[in-house]
Amino acid sequence: MKGHQVTIIDIAKKLGISKSTVSRALTNNPNVNPETRKAVLEMAKTLDYQPNMLALGLIKNETRMLGVIIPDIQKPFFAAIVSGIQHAVGRMGYRTIIAQSDESPQIEKENIQALMLSRVDGFLICHTRDTRNFDQIKLLYQKGFPLVSFARICQGLPIPKVVEDDFNGLYTTTQHLIERGRKRIALLAGPKHLQASKLRQQGYLSALRQNGIGFDNELVAHTRFLADDVAVAVNRWLALAEPPDAICTIYDGGAVQVMQLLKSRGVNVPGDIAVAGFGNDPASGLVEPGLTTFEQRPYEIGQAAGKHMLDILKKRFGDVPPEITISEGRLVVRGST
């Protein structure tokens, strides 16, 4: 019948046997007669039977499906991480269900609930920029779900975490700007509560201190990664009696926008103000001048997160020591500095 999904009941009726016998045959139960198993498999192929993975999961207490929650699939950084996760777990027979939170803590919570109902075997989660309440994640942990946190992490749980080279990234970038003769280096930071934003700001401050450059609070702007925030920061800096001679950002999208705003105001990059980013997104090599940036290696972050998940699943009933994996990056120098 058109639109009808074939079930084990259909196979059983065709062969004149019980549905329990069909079920045992399809799951390679040794108690099924080999001739019966062969007949069931042939009929299943003839009828184009597709197994109900959720039902099989209920039987085996595993679905071999993993839930991956990310803030924004359109951003190359998150897309590359997902690719790394899928390649890591796919080789071991696991598939992923990708859920996008769209930077909303409420949608993130709803995604977790939906994936729980889908009976995924584990969760790999990158939190939204605004996630501050981790009760939902703690509940997953208490229920025994395998968990891996990456990029924007949950600090309060003893679970594996994979993060970027945050401190070293901004330290290296700021040091590079200082070596280019820049003394008033502004920082376009992220939300104050994000661990990555904190570490990147610490790297920036460390480079200033080591080079005897005093910290000026006016040169630091915290944003929510929104275009309006970037415009406010740049306009404020340009209005200072002594504007910055360099702007360091903790994400490439912000750096590209900074360059566009400076050009629109007649400011030469890098002649008047040098600009550096973080991430090495594809756009960083396409703008003019090319954007100096610290490469994050998101694919490797995804692979590391996937491998951590496989380790947890392999030792599900044993102790899995939590650890933080730092994906090492490198500075890519282009024309903007």
TrEMBL record:
CDD domains: HTH_LacI, PBP1_LacI_sugar_binding-like. The keyword DNA-binding applies. It comes from the Bacteria. One of its GO terms (molecular function) is DNA-binding transcription factor activity. The keyword Transcription applies. Gene3D superfamilies: 3.40.50.2300, lambda repressor-like DNA-binding domains (1.10.260.40). Residues 6-60 form the HTH lacI-type domain. Keywords: DNA-binding, Transcription, Transcription regulation. Pfam families: LacI, Peripla_BP_1. PANTHER family: HTH-TYPE TRANSCRIPTIONAL REGULATOR GALS (PTHR30146:SF109), LACI-RELATED TRANSCRIPTIONAL REPRESSOR (PTHR30146). This is LacI family transcriptional regulator. It comes from Parapedobacter pyrenivorans.
